[in-house]
Amino acid sequence: MTAPQRTADPSLDRIERSVRIDATVDKVWAALTRADLLARWFGQRVTLEARVGGRLTLHWDTPRDVRPEDRDCYGTFLADVTELEEGRVFAFRWALRADLEPDAGNSTLVRFTLRPDGSGTLLTVVESGFSELTAVDPTETVRKNTEGWAFELGELVEYLTGAAT
């Protein structure tokens, strides 16, 4: 199998989603940076060294009825924490295939920013670097991850507020 060719299409380089959450910045920050809380909405098992250079592992169990084309969305994904600014920014570089170390060609950068918004929090997630991928198909990865962030952020809102988006 030949690795997908690198693409220069800038429209493939980033996914950006923002959501207002009816919860304090402290509560949202904890849900992003405490492994026990992160596992309630993002993966089933999580470990996190919450420091720049720390390791994040995210594990999604494979459902019995998963479609073969979605099987690569499950397993243990490895990430390195790249930025941590208390209550404001949490970022990591994660490998887009299970059990691989994140490196150039197989990983993207995920960056969460938090901002107070009245009694709630405006959370923005940006995943970037798709145009540099060589180990996975950038176009298909953007499609899957766009759907994935809509789902995962919905789970975060539901976890923090007890209400569906």
Automatic annotation (TrEMBL):
Q: State what protein this is by name.
A: Vanillate O-demethylase oxidoreductase VanB
Its family remark reads: Belongs to the AHA1 family.
- InterPro entries in UniProt: ASHA1/2-like_C, START-like_dom_sf
Query: Cross-referenced SUPFAM superfamilies, in alphabetical order?
Result: Bet v1-like (SSF55961)
- Activator of Hsp90 ATPase homologue 1/2-like C-terminal domain: residues covered: 22-160
Among Gene3D superfamilies, the record links this protein to: 3.30.530.20
